[in-house]
């Protein structure tokens, strides 16, 4: 939907697209021009070539350095459309807004005859609140084919999101081709089955699962996203969530501690297991090589290293690990993880990149100030990181985890976590109230997270993500003052656009019968239970 912009002025009249409409303008905005031409030509059937005359019948992109970064000015009158911006991101956002002012049928992927392609006359001055407006997609738990990833990116772009946090590795699969270590995908990219449902006693489904992205796939994904002003931030999750890594290269596991009976193998269960990387220098060297190949594929300034949910019981039980800690002057397993994160940060920083990790990277101390923290365990990580001077991406699980069930209805498919409604996402304030004005400047972005343990296809992701991701997109764009009633009214119009785009979103009335999963048991919790767990998990960073 069209977010509440900085300024809207309504004018009399309108502009109607026709066979004589031209589309073009400043070459710095060629990506936005190509995207808009593709959307409009497909549904209208008009040629929309570059016959640009700013006095009549045209859609023109115009460069103006006085427009705010990432923002745009959209002017529509009887003579045409002007999209004015200082940068490519703003130009693309202006193009998206133009499509939102047209009939929803403009989003169809084939010619739609008999439509009056008229845009109401208006002037809109608009700019985003946050520079990082993101969504995390987990393709490690369930692999998503490249074509579905491209569709996911296109839908995110149509909501003016500009970061895809790409969770590429976990216990259940490694999804990125690394030439130096081919077993990461040959072995780590495949598992024998998947847990069927969320309950701890859930059986396996008996169905092999896997897949990975070749380097050509990833170059395509990055380029496709860039055309839509989206930056792809890759994540290689370390040193925990490493079962797939150790299955491929067992020497990377802690050598002098007994493994579980089914190791080494890619994990077939959900949750967290004890697999963790050995902390020898060989492991550090291995992942320096991995990140060299990652950085070759992903031009993003930010590179994700995970750092979350690393069970350290094997480190504590390992004589080898204790000896390594003593050599390095480290007095705890938390300090050992912090040492490992610093080794990765130094390598990334030397290449001109910034380390990005979950809020556990604050534990153990010594985190370099250039690191950026994704605060997921409530607001605690955001408050602790910002007070220490670290930049923060706000993504607390209780407000933006879109794998959480949306209601208490018994038909919600494989319910996990506490209920999280569209209204609760929309009313989320990313900047914690207890921060000072200077500390608040470190909250540089917000994102929703989509963990896919229970999402095995694009249509299931659609159901979990939309329309809650629409609400998050507006949270990321506008200021503290938001109008829930106005959003809910605009959302009804926006859902017709999602219909035209083929998005199988969740209806307000709940799931359709075919969206339910009576065959797979869930594991729901209450907000009170989740809050108590998060408070316990974050005690170290709140000390």
Short description:
It comes from Plantibacter cousiniae. The protein is an alpha/beta fold and 543 residues long.
- Our count of helices gives 19
First-to-last CA distance? 42 Å
Care to count the β-strands? 20
Major pleated sheet:
8 strands, parallel, barrel
* Mass-distribution shape: globular
Residue windows where pLDDT falls under 50 for at least 5 positions:
none
Average pLDDT, rounded to a whole number, is 95
Strand content: 15-25%
Based on secondary structure, the structural category is: alpha/beta
Helix fraction bin: 25-40%
Task: Give the strand line-up of the largest sheet.
Answer: 7-8-13-14-15-16-17-19
Describe this structure in words.
There is one protein chain. With 543 residues, the protein is of the alpha/beta class. The protein is 34% helix and 18% strand. The protein has helices at residues 30-44, 88-101, 146-157, 183-186, 215-227, 243-248, 281-297, 313-317, 319-328, 333-350, 380-387, 397-400, 422-426, 437-440, 458-465, 468-477, 484-501, 527-537, 539-542; strands at 7-16, 22-25, 58-63, 72-77, 80-85, 118-126, 132-138, 163-167, 169-170, 173-174, 190-191, 209-210, 231-238, 302-306, 354-358, 372-375, 391-394, 416-417, 443-450, 523-524. The strands form five sheets. An eight-stranded parallel barrel has the order 7-8-13-14-15-16-17-19, surrounded by six helices. It has a six-stranded mixed β-sheet with strand order 1-6-4-5-3-2, covered by helices on one side. A two-stranded antiparallel ribbon has the order 9-10. Helix 3 packs parallel to helix 5 (215-227). The longest helix is centred in the middle third of the chain and has 18 residues, at 333-350. It is globular and about 80 Å long. The mean pLDDT is 95.
